[in-house]
Amino acid sequence: MIFSPESITAMVNGSKVQTRRIATAGDRYQLVSDPQRPRFLNYIRGVPTAGWDVLRVLRTNVAGRVYCPFFKGQSLAVCPGRGKKAVGRIRITRIRLVPADRILERDALAEGVYRQINWEAGHVHHFRMDYHGMITTGRTPQEVFLDGFRKVHPKGTPTRFLWALTFIAIRWVPSRFLRTC
C-alpha cells in the first residue's frame, strides 16, 4: 500500500493509525455481523450500512476475476511510492464504509492530524503535513483532513464512499525508512 513519506513518518511515531481508500462502483463487501451474505454498493439509495464493521471487500478486475483488496487481519507492505521497496508492514484491524464528504473528529486525529494547544493564548491549532511537505492548518481536525484529502484527489472521488482502514504497525525497516523519508 502506497503512503506519502509524511504519512509514513506519522505512522512510525504512532499518530496515524487509519487510512482511507476510495470505494469503487463494483465493490462488494461482507459485514462482520453477517459474513455469509455479500452486499453491493448501491449509489442510488445510499448505503444503509455505512459505518458498520466490514469483514472484507471484494472487487472484480478487468478480466472478470473476483479478488479481495482488503480484509480484516490482512498484512500489507508500506511503500513510500510506486515501485519503491517496503519500509514496513501494517495489519488491518477494522474496515468501515464511510461517506467521502464527512469525517468524525476522532477519525481525523487517527488519520494523522496533529493537535497543538497554546495554553497561554487559549487557542487550539490543528495541522498536518501534506503530500508536498506543506503544513495544512484549520480550526477543526475535520477541516484539516478534508482539505488535505481534496489536494490529493482534486477531481473528487468517483463515488460517495470511502473504505476507512484502521491498522496497527507490525514492523519497520529503519534503514530503508531513513533513505526514503
Describe the structure in your own words.
The protein is an alpha+beta fold and 181 residues long. The chain has 2 domains: 1-100 and 157-181, no CATH class; 102-156, no CATH class. It is 18% helix and 38% strand. The protein has a 4-stranded antiparallel sheet with strand order 1-11-7-6. The chain has a 4-stranded antiparallel sheet with strand order 3-2-4-5, with no helix packed on it. The two termini are 16 Å apart.
Distance between the termini: 16 Å
**Total strand segments:** 11
User: C-alpha Rg, in Å?
Assistant: 17 Å
Give the helices and strands as they follow along the chain.
Answer: HEEEEEEEHEEEHEH
Low-confidence stretches: none
Question: Structural class given helices, strands, pairing?
Answer: alpha+beta
Total of domains: 2
What is the number of helical segments per DSSP (H or I, 4+ residues)? 4
Biggest β-sheet strands, sense, barrel: 4 strands, antiparallel
Write down the overall geometry. globular
Which percent bin holds the helix content?
10-25%
State the strand order across the main sheet: 1-11-7-6
Strand content: 35-45%
Q: Give average pLDDT, whole number.
A: 79
Quick gist of this model?
With 181 residues, the chain is an alpha+beta fold. It has four helices and eleven strands, in the order H-E-E-E-E-E-E-E-H-E-E-E-H-E-H. The protein has two domains: 1-100 and 157-181, no CATH class; 102-156, no CATH class.
